[in-house]
Specification:
Oligomer: single chain
Distance between the termini: 40 Å
Strand content: 5-15%
Helix content: 40-55%
Radius of gyration: 26 Å
CATH superfamily of the largest domain: HUPs
Number of domains: 3
Length: about 475
């Protein structure tokens, strides 16, 4: 079975299954108030990849990813634009979902919204008030962090260590008993949306939202909680604390992906160094697939540096896989679903089972593609199994090879059809011994960044 690094224990260990053959996954979703950027793409794609792989292995996955649809940023944008908070949230959730679709990221099985779970949040906070884990003041309701055993275990720090950094990543409030105590319920402020509660009108704190939704849908002791490494503290630390304080079994395994850097700095809206997903997709029709491939070629726990050159390398790698598929099509190779190179499958599976070692897994895919190309050139009957295995293993991680591959541009297939027409015209010119016309077409294609290869089974092309 797959082994994953557990942020809580600090080691790579088997991913336990509450129910054999099934995995329950909760991955923190977006706060919807602006364009999603490539950092959001890395987080969403990480959990898309593990879901796809587990399902390829025959595991039944229940994938839940929330939408935070009430938040300071949403409130501030609504105020600036003269809109209601729901109007802001609905619009930007639509933008987010469209971006995920363009990246071929599977929809979660459930996408709960925070505002639909306020009653459950109030009930959860009441439990914490009743058992003395929480207290109320004029600002709202707060969790007594010192009452939570192992509060800092997820970040492997003591309470005293965390208190020294109080104010850096937590809300400072003189009304709190302890600087580390955090809001479960925020008292109403003028002009903000509010809900009724036993402690007065207000709205839920951020952390209680995910606890209510994850436990409400997946139940106690669900298998895997994921998110970006920037969420380990305070968000995930506080989620875990709330569940412990309430006597509830929470996530059995914690998984976090590393950040995506631009120019050596974490991509973020606050730093203003972010690239939106839409900007990347507008740049080139292959960029969506290139981004997935690049993420796969970097281990999920390693920081990834992204720039134009790296993206171009990803496109070139995608082109090599597509060129193999075109060569197989030109050779009339049909893919037998039952024919596989078992050694390659075993190597791929071993890599993926070892903490999602996707760079090693993709190395297996590209080695297979090279062998497939050689077999196709030689007219080897084993080419079919090699091509089929390449397509299957790449597809297990969401990389679609050749025909049917998703693209961010509706007209990309038209571009490919135009190139196919040029290549066919060149083939006819060669058959008619009109080599001048054939050379003219070839040079025109080169000028467009298209390389034509003449094989024993006809001409195939790929982008340079």
């Amino acid at each position: 079975m797959i082994r994953l690094y557990d942020t809580l224990t600090g080691d790579v260990r088997p991913l336990a299954q509450r129910d054999e053959g099934k995995v329950s996954l909760y991955a923190c979703g977006p706060t919807v108030y602006d364009h999603p950027h490539l950092g959001h793409a890395r987080q969403a794609m990480t959990y898309d990849i593990i879901r796809r792989y587990l399902e390829w292995r025959g595991v039944e996955v229940t994938h839940v990813a929330n939408v935070t649809d009430i938040d300071d940023n949403i409130i501030n944008r609504a105020t600036r634009e003269g809109l209601t908070e729901p109007e802001v949230a609905v619009h930007w959730e639509g933008v987010y979902v469209e971006a995920m679709d363009a990246l071929d990221i599977l929809h979660p099985h459930q996408r709960p919204h925070a505002t639909d779970y306020v009653d459950e949040m109030v009930e959860f906070v009441q439990t914490l008030m009743d058992n003395g884990s929480a207290y109320a003041n004029e600002s709202g309701v707060y969790l007594r962090v010192h009452k939570v055993d192992g509060y800092g275990d997820l970040v492997h720090r003591s309470l005293d260590d965390l208190r020294e950094g109080a104010g850096a990543r937590i809300e400072v409030d003189d009304n709190k008993e302890d600087p580390l105590d955090f809001a479960l319920w925020k008292a109403a402020k003028p002009g903000e949306p509010t809900w009724a509660s036993p402690w007065g009108a207000g709205r839920p704190g951020w952390h209680i939202e995910c606890v209510a939704m994850s436990l409400g849908i997946l139940g106690d002791g669900f298998d895997l909680h994921g998110g970006g490494s920037d969420l380990v503290f305070p968000h995930h630390t506080n989620e875990r604390a709330e569940a412990i304080a309430a006597g509830r079994g929470f996530a059995t395994h914690w998984m976090h992906n590393a950040m995506l850097n631009i120019g050596g700095e974490k991509m973020s809206k606050s730093l203003g160094n972010f690239t939106t997903i839409q900007a990347l997709l507008d740049e080139h029709p292959l960029n969506a697939r290139a981004l997935r491939l690049l993420l796969l070629q970097t281990h999920y726990r390693k920081t990834m540096e992204l720039n134009a050159d790296v993206i171009a390398q990803g496109r070139a790698a995608i082109e090599r896989l597509d060129a193999m598929a075109r060569k197989a099509g030109a050779a009339g190779v049909t893919l037998d679903d039952d024919a596989r190179d078992q050694q390659a499958v075993d190597e791929f599976t071993a890599a993926m089972d070892d903490d999602l070692a996707t760079p090693e897994a993709m190395a297996v895919v590209f080695a297979l593609a090279r062998r497939a190309n050689a077999a196709l050139d030689a007219g080897d009957a084993g080419a079919s199994a090699l091509v089929a295995t390449t397509v299957d293993l790449a597809g297990a991680l969401g990389v679609v090879v050749g025909a049917g591959a998703p693209t961010s541009h509706d007209n990309a297939s038209d571009h490919d059809a135009e190139i196919d027409a040029y290549v066919e015209a060149r083939t006819k010119a060669r058959a008619n011994k009109d080599f001048a016309e054939a050379d003219r077409i070839r040079h025109e294609l080169i000028g467009r960044g298209i390389v034509v290869e003449d094989t024993a089974n006809g001409s195939v092309w790929h982008r340079s």
